[in-house]
Design goal:
This protein is of the alpha+beta class and 422 residues long. Helices cover 36% and strands 20% of the residues. The chain has 14 helices and 13 strands. It has a five-stranded mixed beta sheet. Helix 10 packs antiparallel against helix 11 and helix 12 runs antiparallel to helix 13. The longest helix has 21 residues. It starts with a strand and ends in a 38-residue tail after the last helix. 36% of the residues are buried. It binds a DNA duplex (13 and 19 nucleotides) through helix 8 and strand 9.
Length: 422
DNA sequence: CTATAACTCTCAA
DNA sequence: CTAACGTTGAGAGTTATAG
């Protein structure tokens, strides 16, 4: 068994460029919610030294100097583009694992005598032509190696034209290549681990590949030991074709403007719970407990700080927005303290299980579930847009709404957003 | 004491 | 003019708590 890992290049940036070709070759970024941080960078911006996650306001002067364009994130567009890309790639193997919005693994069982380099080129070419997005392809005998291979393809380290197959290198070539890649590029090795590994003299991928497995398990973790094995070509991570149901569902957001009142927080929590409950119903689960949390802005150290959260069990597991919201608002009242500038709130659905065979309750619920009502609400919001039907507790003013200063049109999902051609 | 729950840390996109 | 810093999910490891 071997794997392919296909990854979109600067995915969000590339999505914007598909519909606005003037952005090609321009230094540009896409920002996180509230136009807060840089979450995607074009090659031109990377060359200027802009790092991932940098707060946008800190880049303002650099941006002026180099005419960096910044787009608010348009997740509706990116999700739709992702679906198109995944659909094309799914035709290249009977086994696909969609790992994130911009990357997927393919299982290559029985592709032993394929010309993988040519196969990868076909994927690239077809995704570019049919969807408009540039991608890179990496092949390897384990998922970790396929990931690393993709990294090489992107950096033109051992690949040609955005495709790389580490399996085609001789042992000597591979050894040399791995000794030139920093250990931090390995899947699962973040900044913290990079530092800890460096203390033990492990700085390159090659170092990690040859590290003593028992030492790694004892000094680090079983996870890293698995990574070492995978680097040696021993497959420890399987392809997960169907995503398992989530064990928890979170909906949280920073506000566009500080919120000071309980009413304001109640509106936000109601909205977040509506989104979370939609996700819950989509995977046909019910929740046994609800967590709600609020906090002030931790970056403002001259402001009084407060953060709190509370978990409220629901009387019986449910996916009914009204009952879940009721519990969340109960919790919110409990933790709310007046006199603070709140910057973020969120809800979490916990103790999830399959709906359908719910435990019969001993006592009658004060508020009974209304599954048909929930179904009508979900359908209406899909058909006519989010927020078409909602609970009154969400309110209407929403002065705390996200900041999205430079949002591109929903080119692929809204007729209204299509530019007029005259 | 052990078993579990709750919480913290790390990583990923 | 100033102030302006993401979201979601998982897993492992550690600490607190119940019995």
């Amino acid at each position: 068994m071997s794997f392919a890992l296909i990854d979109g290049n600067n995915f969000y940036v590339s999505c914007e460029r598909v519909f606005n070709p003037k952005l090609e070759d321009r230094p540009m970024v896409v920002l996180s919610n509230n136009d807060g941080c840089v979450v995607a960078r074009s090659a031109e911006v990377k060359a200027l030294g802009v790092i991932m996650g940098e707060p946008w306001f800190k880049l303002k002067s650099l941006a002026r100097k180099h005419h960096i364009l910044a787009y608010s994130s348009n997740y509706t567009l990116y999700a739709d583009m992702s679906n198109r890309m995944m659909a094309v790639l799914s035709t290249y193997s009977p086994q696909q694992e969609i790992y994130s919005i911009d990357e997927c693994f393919l299982g290559l069982d029985g592709f032993d005598h394929f010309d993988l380099m040519a196969y990868g080129q076909r994927m690239r070419q077809q995704v570019k032509q049919w969807v408009g997005l540039p991608v890179c392809v990496g092949f390897g005998s384990t998922k970790t190696l396929a990931k690393l291979s993709n990294h090489c393809a992107k950096k033109f380290l051992a690949g040609q034209d955005g495709v790389c197959d580490l399996g085609q290198l001789s042992l000597m070539q591979l050894d040399t290549l791995l000794s030139r890649i920093n250990v931090g590029e390995v899947w699962g090795v973040g900044r913290r681990l990079t530092d800890k590994l460096a203390e033990r003299g492990i700085t390159t991928v090659r170092d990690l590949q040859h590290a003593d497995a028992r030492m790694i398990r004892e000094s680090f973790s079983v996870t890293l030991e698995r990574t070492v094995r995978e680097l040696r070509g021993v497959s420890c991570l399987e392809l997960e074709e169907l995503a398992p149901a989530k064990k928890q569902i979170v909906s949280s957001r920073a506000f566009g403007a500080y919120v000071y009142t309980l009413t304001g927080l109640e509106e936000a929590v109601s909205l977040y719970m509506a989104r979370a409950a939609e996700k819950l119903r989509r995977q046909h689960s019910v929740a046994g407990a609800v967590q709600v949390f609020i906090r002030t802005n931790p970056f403002k150290d001259d402001h009084p700080q407060y953060q709190s959260g509370i978990t409220i069990p629901v009387a019986s597991p449910t996916s009914d927005t009204r009952r879940l919201t009721h519990s969340a608002l109960l919790g919110l009242k409990h933790i709310f303290k007046t006199g603070y500038a709140y910057q973020k709130a969120g809800v979490m659905l916990m103790e999830l299980r399959d709906s359908g065979h719910e435990q019969a309750t001993l006592f009658k619920e004060p508020v009974p579930d209304r599954p048909k009502l929930m179904d009508v609400i979900d359908r209406a919001n899909v058909q006519w847009g989010q927020g078409t039907l909602k609970l009154a507790s969400e309110g209407v003013e929403k002065i705390w709404h996200m900041k999205r200063g430079n949002l591109s049109p929903h080119y692929t999902t809204s007729w209204q957003d299509l530019p007029r051609v005259n």
